[in-house]
Amino acid sequence: MIFFNLKKKWRKLKRSRQIIFVFFKYGVEHLIDRAKIGFSLKLKRKKISHPQASTAERFKLALEELGPTFIKFGQILSVRPDLLPPAYIKELEKLQDQALSLDVFSPKKIIEKELGDKQENLFLKFEETPLSTASLSQVHKAVLLNGEKVAIKVQRPNIKELINLDLDILENLIGVIKSRFHNNWNYHPKLMIDEFRRSVSKELDFTFEGYNFEKFSKNFKDIDHIQTPKIYWEQSSKRVLTMELMEGKKINQIKNQPTYNHKAIAENLANMFLKQILEDGFFHADPHPANILVNPPDKIIILDVGMVGHIDDYTATNGARLIHSIIEKDINESIRCLKNLGVVLDNNNQAKLRQDLAELSERYVDIPLKHIEIRQANQDVLEIMVKHNLTFPSNLALMIKVLATIEANAKYLDPDFNMIIVAKPFVKKLLRQKMSAKELYKKGKTFFREGMELFEELPQNTMDILHKIQDGSLIINFEHKGLDNLTTEIDHLSNKTSFSLIIASLIVGSALVLQQEIPPIIYGYSAIGIIGYLLAAILGLGLVASIIKTSLKSKKNTKKQ
Predict the structure, then answer these.
(1) Is 470 exposed, middle or buried (0-12, 13-18, 19+ CB in 10 A)?
(2) Which residue numbers are catalytic?
(3) What is the mean pLDDT of the chain?
(4) How far apart are CA 401 and CA 306, in angstroms?
């Protein structure tokens, strides 16, 4: 057991050194807390690799060099535009689209261990060369014993252990640090790690992806131009997913090919995702070109649904109301919708937020719908979020990013495409459903039931409070807020006062010692007295330096405010 712990600690130390070295190598060490780097991990500054590249580009290169965990980390962050500046998001999106130089592994042992039989007994034919490689897995072509062609997704060996190790190191290195990028974009490291852990834990269990495929298949069963692969559960497990082989071209590879109906594909793509978000409340959260294939003339194939988002009726309704309130210049309603959506607002800053929302509303109110783009509107909203330090709930941020991505893909195929016009019927239908007689009856029934429960419990709760007051057992707890800094300042002030008294005592005591000429005597003066004066002088200089430092810090904070 001791040997195992030592081995684990050594692996962690070795990997920590590698991570820190790569961050320093690419000049992005500002993203880690230097105070968290132990003495044994400290590295000397070396010449930055790719100095001509931007910080965002070097950040992407650092993630690539650190391997599968960090590549996946970058891919997940690329769909969270509320956590990183646009330049970083743009670079991290390349981790989705570009072919990455990842190590290729032999899947045979994993397949046989997971499925409990020899590979030869499970498949009539199996191609060892992978069809594609990703940060967490590889996909191989194969043929089942009954002759059906399949694609087999196999998880990388020991990837779960590596991710857990890297996550532990990342949490330690970035700690609770919270700073800003050079363009005032807030850096939320804790939120980034939590989002990564939540997302990747589901992706590491392939059964979740299998169920996601079946759910999408059910939701689109009546739409012929949208296809999802069939899942073969007998040949699947948590680390192996066997699905129907579906082939087609990536959506960004058909631009000038006449066999495809580009206009129909753009409209089908948008309608597919609007249905997922506004009707089903369950959507594909990673729609980059490799995950959406097309076949002529306008058939769409959905692949790789390990990352999905969920939007409940309440969130979808408030999102639609938020858009409507901005168009109608109803700022109070906009604030209410933001609160309902779970966006944390600072009460001291709401006046400025109202002003910015009003300006945003003025910017769009007179523009024809055909000239409004989701991507630009999304960027304008994000700038307000950054300015006021707001962060959307993860699924809402995913939804905004997905809509912007789909709009970009659709406009690539059809330059005249407009997402707002296509989305308008969906939004109207959603708001109309919320005001239907059935929905109003449902809400009224819920309101009546909760009201009756309140009236039933109110007398008893009131009597309980009165009895506690009568018995003297009622306890009221007060929590002070915003006084932590004051407490710290008082503590520092008391320390400086005590320090001043000690210095004063040393000076007075040394003077008495010199006057009494207490031995030993050096050059006619008491050595003890001289030492006392020197000590008082050193402590006094330290106290003066501390006071000056505190004063300068106070002035700096005042200027920031």
Answers:
(1) exposed
(2) 286
(3) 79
(4) 17
Domain residues for the domain of 460 are 440-471
**What does the block give as tokens for 368?**
């024809």
pTM of the model: 0.71
Please name which of 217, 219, 294, 229 lies closest in space to residue 255, comparing C-alpha atoms: 294
CA–CA separation, 107 and 215 (whole Å): 28
Q: Please choose, from the candidates 163, 192, 168, 160, the residue with its C-alpha nearest in 3D space to the C-alpha of residue 13.
A: 168
Query: Residues 468, 471, 473, 475: is their CA dihedral positive or negative?
Result: positive
Residue 136 φ/ψ, nearest 5 degrees: -110, -15
Could you tell me if 464 and 499 lie in one domain? no
User: Do 450 and 412 lie in a common domain?
Assistant: no
Reduce the DSSP state of residue 33 to 3 states and report it.
coil
Is residue 333 located within the same domain as residue 384? yes
Amino acid at 295: N
> Dihedral sign, CA of 512, 517, 523, 528?
negative
Q: What are the pLDDT digits (tens) for 220-271?
A: 999 999 999 999 999 999 999 999 999 999 888 898 899 999 999 999 999 9
Residues 505, 553, single domain; the answer is: yes
pLDDT in tens, 2-54: 555 667 778 888 888 888 888 888 888 766 766 566 545 555 556 677 778 88
Q: Are residues 405 and 333 in the same domain?
A: yes
CA 479 – CA 4 distance, rounded (Å): 45
